[in-house]
Write a structure and sequence with these properties.
This protein is α/β, with parallel strands linked by helices and 232 residues long. Helix content is 48%, strand content 22%. It binds S-adenosylmethionine (SAM).
Length: 232
């Protein structure tokens, strides 16, 4: 599959689930994704007035939490229906210091050294070239700027990994079927995770392209993970 086909496939997948995305997120993670995103916000240590970019912002869940920390936030996503949900959520806030932008994570429409913080939650796994995406992050971060990536992980324990993959393979498509009539949209999580380099591989790319202070935080036996890194 070339890049164009990959982008079209991912875009149409998110178009088909946008309206129910937040609901299914809560169900499939038993609400825990809220805690993990809150953890990202805490790790971000944002100072008032800093510039933050949330790549693959989707329905704006994480961007919204960053806005509440008084940062100037840009949420970027390529999918219009997901951004429309985000727009709706942000418009409910009284003071809004956030912009939403429809663009490709692999070609960020920003100048070099624009942001103090970049976050990516459940987004990197979806892009067609992880290294190109991370090089773009490196470019738009200011020197000393921080990167935080939250995504599904690969547990190092063989038994836990098997059980986890079974959950992703058998249970998630059922949620997709029940709540949006799209079992394949949720079967995609396991497919993309198998390809995703996760804890070790993402750290290797970050180090290879010149990020500093790379750290992996495993959550629930490594079923989820957070990468943190800094631009030199
Ligand atoms: C699983 S959702 C994550 C949404 C949100 N960050 C969250 O944590 O709930 C992945 C998002 O990545 C977006 N996405 C995938 N590939 C992208 C790309 N190349 N450029 C921009 N957005 C992309 C999709 O449109 C989708 O909204």
């Amino acid at each position: 599959m070339n890049n164009k086909e990959h982008v079209e496939k991912v875009d149409s997948l998110f178009t088909s689930i946008a309206a129910r995305y937040d609901l299914i997120n809560d169900i499939q993670s038993f609400g825990l994704h809220r805690l993990w995103k809150q953890r990202i916000v805490k790790m971000a240590s944002l100072i008032e007035g800093e510039d933050a970019l949330d790549i693959c912002c989707g329905t704006g869940d994480l961007a919204l939490r960053l806005v509440k920390r008084n940062a100037r936030v840009v949420g970027l996503d390529m999918n219009r229906p997901m951004l429309n949900v985000a727009l709706n959520q942000l418009s409910r806030l009284e003071s809004i210091s956030a912009n939403l932008l429809q663009a490709d994570a692999l070609a960020l429409p920003f100048n070099t050294s624009s942001f103090d913080l970049v976050t990516i939650a459940y987004g990197l796994r979806n892009v067609s070239d992880y290294q190109v995406g991370l090089l773009e992050v490196l470019r738009v971060l200011k020197p000393g700027g921080r990167l935080l990536i939250l995504d599904f992980g690969k547990p190092s324990n063989w038994v836990i990994r098997k059980l986890y993959y079974l959950y992703l393979k058998l249970v998630l498509p059922v949620f997709g079927l029940i709540f949006c009539g799209k079992p394949n949209a949720y079967a995609y999580i396991l497919k993309s995770l198998r390809k995703y380099p996760a804890q070790e591989g993402v750290s290797t790319i970050l180090s290879k392209i010149g990020f500093n202070k790379i750290k992996v935080t495993n959550i629930i036996f490594g079923t989820m993970s957070i990468h943190s890194a800094q631009k030199k």
